[in-house]
Write a structure and sequence with these properties.
The protein has 257 residues and is an alpha/beta fold. Helices cover 54% and strands 10% of the residues.
Length: 257
């Protein structure tokens, strides 16, 4: 789901707010403000008393959890404290918003503890996982959250997917050595980028196949057809949370002659 870059960043009413989000950058504060906002229509309204308090960082129903200054991770004890707090009804607003700053820094025990909260969330709680590396979150945690991206982030990901797909088909035309080199480039993609690459490549395969047929390049046609089948299988591996490095190796190994 994308976020507009201008005007109201959200247009949620109280019935449409999800219980958990994954967001990047500084948008977490705005989303928390939207959660406690008492305005009608687009949220945050930026006019109600709740928005005023939130904008000054003093709303009692917005809490931020981040890693301790002397630690490298968000600890399970912090999530257990959140669990104790979340059962308490809001002080002033209809909702309580919890921002987990750097959510990907939660260690495995902390993420599993947080998963227990996500499985039975109180109706008055909204959890906002701020993370610039959401692929580091456990799949079970991430699957229970709505992931929001800015338009700039979506456009950048789309552009990267197009570049990667073009690079793949160029490598496919050039042969095994180029495919091997390309597989190392794929290793640098995160899970979201890799998923976008697979989707774009499967779409582009039809165009590439049509062009190869027009040129009479039957061997390339066979390679592209084989690539379509490999992409479909690779997508299944991605759903099972197999690492990007393993999947990129699988793709190239199955396409080398």
């Amino acid at each position: 789901m994308g976020i507009p870059e201008s005007g109201h960043p959200l247009n949620f009413d109280s019935e449409r707010l999800s219980h958990a989000y994954v967001v990047a950058g500084s948008f977490a504060d705005t989303l928390a403000m939207a959660a406690v906002c008492s305005g009608r229509g687009a949220r945050p309204c930026m006019e109600c008393a709740h928005c005023n308090k939130a904008s000054h960082g003093r709303h009692p129903d917005i809490m931020t959890i981040s890693k301790p200054a002397n630690k490298r991770e968000i600890l399970v004890e912090q999530i257990r404290e959140l669990k104790r707090d979340v059962i308490v009804v809001p002080n002033e607003a209809e909702k309580k918003a919890y921002i987990i700053d750097g959510a990907d820094l939660m260690n495995v025990n902390a993420q599993n503890a947080f998963l227990q909260i996500l499985e039975e969330p109180p109706s008055h709680a909204v959890f906002i996982l701020q993370s610039d590396a959401p692929d580091k979150l456990l799949p079970t945690v991430r699957s229970r959250c709505v992931e929001l991206k800015t338009r700039v982030e979506e456009e950048a990901q789309d552009a990267a997917a197009v570049d990667a797909a073009n690079g793949f088909f160029n490598a496919l035309r050039q042969g095994n050595a180029s495919l091997m080199a390309f597989s190392f480039q794929l290793d640098k993609l995160n899970k979201a980028q890799f998923s976008a690459f697979l989707a774009r490549s499967r779409e582009q395969a039809a165009e590439e196949l049509k062009a190869a047929l027009a040129r009479g390049e039957m061997e390339l046609c066979e390679a592209i057809s084989r690539a379509e089948r490999v992409f479909a299988e690779a997508g299944g591996f991605l759903d099972l949370n197999v690492g990007v490095g393993h999947i990129s190796g699988f793709i190239c190994a199955n396409l080398m002659e």
